[in-house]
Fold:
Amino acid sequence: MIEADAIVTRTEGLMSTPVDDEIVFLNPGTDSYVALDWIGRRIWEMLESPQRVGDLAAALAAEFDADVSVVGADVAAFLDELKREGMVHAVNPEDAR
Structure:
């Protein structure tokens, strides 16, 4: 599981297009399509610049008036899925030194 202190960045080179409230990607690395719903799209937008997972969860919890611990667990699980798809990279701060 991606840790709350990890810094997450988007993988470059993914082709995407918005479709209604969703966003659809073609991942040339896996030759597959991935669609994100509106909340996934919001997280993707927030990852325009590298983000610490805990900061991302806190911002989403404030935006949606939700419990930060619940949002944090959901965000970490979602980012794990994106990582498995090769759409994001996560680096623990101590590994970056």
Observations:
- The radius of gyration is 13 Å.
